[in-house]
Every structure is written in C-alpha cells, then in structure tokens.
Design the sequence.
C-alpha cells in the first residue's frame, strides 16, 4: 500500500521536476500542473458518478469548494503558461487557489474527525446550489452529500485527506518555485 503511494508521488514529481531539481517555472510545468489539477477534478467526477466499492461518492458543499480550488489552480496555471508577461500575477493567483483549497480540505478533514460538529443538512449546501454554475452544470457543481460522511478509503486515505495532501503539494511547489523563478 505504501509502495503504491510512493510510486504515485514519485511519478507526479518526475513529471514536474527534472533531475536537476530546477524549480523555475516554464510553460510546460504550468501546463503539467494545470492538467494534473484538472485530472483530480475529473477523478472526483468519476467517483461521483460511478462510486467506489459499491458506494456513491456524492459531493458535499466542501467538496464543491475544493473543486473550485483545483479549477482555480488549473485555470491560473494555464493562463501563466500562455501569457508570459503576466506569469507572476497568475502564479500568485494559482498559489492563492491552492491555499484556499488546502484550507477547505483541512476543514473537511477536521469535520471527519469530529462528526458531532456536523448538524445534518448544511446551510452551505443550500447557498452553493443556488449559484448559476450549480444549476447550469449540476454534474460538476451541485452539492448533495454530507461533509462528515465517512466513505471507503482509497489507498488508505479518505478523499478529503487526499485532497488536503494534493493541495499542500501544489501549494508548496508553487511557493518554492515563486522564489526560484528565473528573471
């Protein structure tokens, strides 16, 4: 189990970092981060529609907010890859999106360890489901689940724990590469 996690992490870093570990960001790295973030959202949608181990993974309001964070990282990294003169501001916005997503994922991980803090239907769900995006693209942005639901673990971790891990990796990578940027 740990070996599989190690191989997945090694593969991700191998695609983003060359062997010399030069952390300056070029267009290819921005596109890799963008595609990786989109891949995580696609994986969440697949889990939502197909389930895992016979259990449907309905997204809760915090799950939807995490999707927004991943889409923010993907969008701003894609823009940073394409618009070189505005690369630094887009990099900062991607960094903020990763920090936002990590904070939302951290809150959900906390709720998983304190299920008594959840009161059933979340008022945040009603608020999120009133947005035009959730009405226009319900398969991506409609919240139907409970934030404190314990679902089957995937490779030993709950989905919010995986999300917190990947947001933290993205945040740290973007933060370090911000200061290592070649001028």
Sequence:
């Amino acid at each position: 189990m740990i070996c599989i996690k190690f191989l997945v992490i090694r593969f991700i870093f191998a695609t983003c970092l060359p062997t010399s570990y030069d952390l300056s960001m070029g267009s290819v790295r921005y596109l890799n981060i963008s595609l990786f973030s989109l891949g995580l959202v696609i994986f969440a949608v697949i889990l939502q529609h197909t389930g895992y181990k016979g259990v449907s993974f309905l997204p809760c309001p915090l799950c939807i907010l995490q999707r927004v964070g991943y889409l923010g990282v993907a969008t701003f990294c894609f823009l940073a890859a394409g618009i070189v003169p505005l690369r630094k501001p887009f990099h900062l916005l991607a960094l903020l999106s990763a920090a936002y997503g990590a904070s939302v994922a951290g809150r959900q991980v906390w709720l998983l360890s304190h299920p008594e803090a959840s009161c059933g239907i979340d008022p945040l769900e009603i608020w999120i489901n009133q947005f035009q995006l959730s009405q226009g693209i319900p398969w991506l942005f409609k919240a139907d689940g409970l934030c404190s639901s314990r679902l089957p673990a995937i490779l030993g971790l709950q989905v919010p724990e995986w999300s917190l891990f990947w947001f933290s990796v993205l945040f740290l990578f973007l933060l370090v590469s911000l200061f290592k940027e070649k001028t």
